[in-house]
Specification:
Layout (H helix, E strand, L loop, with lengths): L4 E8 L6 H10 L5 E6 L15 E4 L3 H9 E6 L14 E4 L22 E4 L2 H11 L6 E3 L5 H5 L3 H8 L3 E6 L20 H4 L4 H10 L1 E5 L18 E3 L2 H6 L4 H7 L2 E4 L4 H5 L6 E4 L3 H6 L7 H4 L4 E2 L2 H4 L1
Parallel strand pairs: 1-2, 1-4, 2-3, 4-5, 5-6, 6-7, 8-9, 8-11, 9-10, 11-12, 12-13
């Protein structure tokens, strides 16, 4: 009963308006396509959204649902109305929010998003994405993730204004205490960097000697309510709100950094394109492996030594 539109593109990401949404919207600029962002929260609308041409609709609104059913193209990073039956009208382009190292999707019997096309970072991940999202291998396209463009084009002038010419170490741990998950925990949260950083005196001294700053960006799904923010000036916690307050996106920040510290975040694969050092700090590796586990043996995916202690990191 709803009129269809082959020129209507729905973009729905988590977090709302993330770098995937930005990169896709930028690629569609000047084309015939009309863009509708369907959002879950109340994040401020960023400047790159064309307020004259684009629409922003709530996922829980009737307008959002009607726009979704009219649209031919649906671009997602997680899923959108996956609980509804898939119709023949929509074509889902799934820029999954990262190449998974930990088990996800079908491996955990999770509800799967509708997907007609899925993007994988490399040929090895083609079979992995096929398995975790339960799609045929021919539906998986090997291509760079759109948000890589944001990372590669990060402004070094802005970086110098933010960090005063210091070396910038960016620490991106994945979540352990999942926000709003009724007690679900992966690995050993008490061993995560978020809970240990106040004790890392040798690491703090190392940063000072290097004239460096370490920015720790918690995962948006991490429960940080019990994390101490009392840290030396050389270590800073930046949340999504902190990025918004600086008019900065995550992948702009990633592109400004000189080195990455992470555990099993999929950002590892994208950061490799910068050719900069990557350190794998994973103190609860064994607990994570025996608990949630990995999509494949860890060190067939991550080509970096596993660091478990502050001394090894330093």
């Amino acid at each position: 009963m709803l009129p269809a539109s082959n020129d209507l593109v729905i973009i729905s990401t988590f977090p709302d308006f993330d770098d995937t949404a930005w990169a896709v919207r930028d690629a569609l600029a000047g084309s015939r396509y009309q863009v509708v962002f369907i959002v879950s929260g109340s994040m401020p609308v960023p400047e790159w959204v064309d307020r004259a041409e684009d629409r922003v609709l709530s996922r829980r609104s009737l307008r959002g649902i009607l726009a979704f059913h009219r649209a031919k193209w649906v671009v997602i990073t997680h899923g959108l109305y996956s609980e509804l039956p898939k119709t023949g009208r929509q074509f889902f382009i799934n820029f999954w929010h990262g190449m998974p190292v930990k088990k996800v999707g079908a491996m955990l019997n999770e509800q799967l998003p509708h997907s007609d096309i899925v993007v994988a970072a490399n040929s090895e991940y083609r079979s992995i994405m096929s398995e975790v999202l339960d799609v045929r291998p021919e539906q998986v396209i090997v291509a760079p993730h759109p948000r890589v463009d944001i990372m590669l084009n990060a402004s070094q002038e802005s970086r110098n204004q933010l960090f005063d010419n210091k070396w910038v170490l960016l620490w991106l741990p994945t979540f352990r205490d999942r926000k709003g998950s009724k007690g679900r925990r992966d690995g050993m949260p008490e061993q995560s960097v978020l809970h240990q950083m106040t004790l890392f005196r040798e690491f703090h001294e190392c940063l000072e000697e290097l004239n460096a700053v370490c920015v720790i960006k918690p995962h948006p799904m991490e429960d940080i309510s019990g994390v101490s923010m009392s840290l030396p000036d050389s270590v800073q916690f930046w949340t999504d709100s902190d990025l918004d307050n600086r008019s900065l996106s995550l992948y702009q920040l990633i592109g400004m950094s000189d080195a990455l510290i992470t555990d099993l975040s999929s950002v590892y694969f994208e950061y490799q394109q910068l050719g900069r050092p990557i350190f794998c700090f994973f103190p609860d590796f064994e607990a994570y492996e025996s608990g949630r586990g990995f999509v494949r043996p860890f060190q067939t995916l991550i080509d970096a030594p596993i660091l478990r202690t502050e001394a090894e990191l330093v």
